[in-house]
Amino acid sequence: MSVADTPGRVRDWLIAGSPVLLALALGVFPLVTLFVESIGPGLGGENYAEVLSPLYRGALLYSIGVGVGVTAVCLAVAYPITYWIAHRCPDRYRLVALVAVTLPLWLNYVVLNYAWVWILARGGVVNRILVGSGVLDSSLDLLYNNVSMGIGFVYIYLPYVVLTMYVSMERLDYRLITAARDLGASDYRVFLDIVLPRTLPGAAAATLIVYARIAGAFATPEILGSPGNIMIARLVVQAFRQYTNYGFAAALSFVFLLLVLGSLALGALSPRVRRELRQW
Amino acid sequence: MVRVSRLAERGAGRLPGVVVALTLVFLYTPVLVIGYLSLSPAGQPTIPIDGLSLRWYTAVLTDSRFVRALFTSLGIGIVTAFGGTMLGLAGAYAIVRSPLTRTVRRSIAVVIALPLFVPTVVVAFGIGRASALVGFGYGYLPVVLGHLFWVLPFTTFLIAARYGELDDRLSAAARDLGADNRTVFVTVTVPLLWPALMASVLFAFALSFNEFLITFFLAGSGVTTVPLEIFGKVRIGATAFLNAASVLVIVVSAVAAGVASTLRRPV
């Protein structure tokens, strides 16, 4: 047994080796590099002090705030969507509906966010409709503020939230809802007492997956956001592009990474959230 | 009783359906608007457009910068699609089927999943710095490696899901009939995994073709992909040229993802 086993084991290590080597070289090694840069020069910790100074703490908090806010909007929309697809949609249209709401996930987010410029610009679709129908006398400035950036973010990340939520919504037994209705529960009570508690782990998993991607996003704030609102990614990109302040950018990356990993670890404490996270 | 609950359902049930309809409008209006505007003959289209023309598509496809970026993106996408799927197959085998201990297999899964839970900007910045420090620099090779790393969790877990469903007894039967490991793999395992492998190739291609941030950090000055090219132009202003280019990008990725979705349910 062990004689036949040895070459098999060597072969398995070789097979497993190629993807693992790639993941170590491009995942773990760069993080180690960043960590070393963040504490240098001379183990001072000055970079971390700078990251936590009021100016940059503001950028960090703003980024996370945007991440959490946008995620909340996505969840509010994803609840009725996933409920409809899982429990109302006729069976043969379910797959089509699911693909339709998640297809944008595979399209280019730079291009998709650019498309919103044409919707929100002064001569764009919304202003043309509002002015043309006489609701407004002159065009509004809808672009380059928190709202336009928020719309761009919801547009990109809603499909992720829907996909994550859908799994737990599908698992929800519809007979529970019918039973509650038969016993006279209102929609409000059905949602609060049955739907919400049973899908909360899915919502938590979606939040954990999406909020950090939003907080660390670069393209959407650049294309649709206000130039004055600085998010983490822009600070990192600036440091990288201008060949300066690598240590600071590395420290900023690490503080952000720790926040993200910390929240994931908190989520993973609950076995039900862990199960929902596993699909990713 | 049944009728009462049906009535309640009908009254209550409008909201989710309405939200789905509104969301579809929300999701597809920008795409349709860009498609519509790309047909404008004017360089700075106005709404409504004054005439129909394909001249901006001609302009995009004869623009040497854009065409070079398109071929770069397609090339990197194809290499990433096949390379990423092969690595994903190796990773899936290691995680699902290999006789390695449970702890080792779980650690492999965690390491491969890294780009899913480490923010992309941190990953991209880290790879960029590490590449510069090791003397690897910037250019095609770092971009391709970065893309392979980025698609690896998607391809691995997509294939692993299918691998896990395979019936062990099929390969055991083939082995009993005298097939060696290689023959079992080629004639039993690969054909059974085929839909997952095809979906993996297409999804990896779409991911690579659309990838922006890692490329942004690793491309240096020599390499331009389509997303980089479009991002550079978006910041200067919205134009008819960009609209036509955007439609081409959307069509390429929608076709890849659409075909992949028919091979595998999205959930």
For this entry, give a set of tags.
heterodimer; A: 280 residues; mainly alpha; MetI-like fold; B: 267 residues
Give a structural overview.
The complex is a heterodimer of chains A (280) and B (267). Chain A is built from 13 helices and no strands. Chain A has one domain (51-277): MetI-like (MetI-like fold). Chain A is globular and about 70 Å long. The two termini of chain A are 37 Å apart. Chain A is mainly α. By secondary structure, chain B is mainly α. Helices cover 79% and strands 0% of the residues of chain B. Chain B has helices at 2-12, 14-37, 55-62, 64-97, 102-112, 114-117, 120-134, 140-165, 168-176, 181-210, 213-218, 226-234, 240-263. In chain B, α2 crosses α13 and α4 runs parallel beside α8. The longest helix of chain B is centred in the first third of the chain and has 34 residues, at 64-97. Chain B is globular and about 70 Å long. Classes of the chains: A mainly alpha (280), B mainly alpha (267). The interface between A and B is large, with 96 and 91 residues.
